[in-house]
Amino acid sequence: MGIGDVLQVDGTRDGSKDHTMMVSYVSGGTAYLTYHTSNRYRRSMNQVLADWGNANY
Fold it and tell me: What are the extents of the domains in the chain?
């Protein structure tokens, strides 16, 4: 993923997107996402995946 790319999450796995995040930084091949719901800034992709568990992307 690159800066400006958007990632949407279906956290409830019902086919509807529940959350949207944007890549705001990339370092060492790791994308960092920023989003408003819980005011997260530059959260690593690994942290996002851990936070959302079994979500669909």
Answer: 6-52
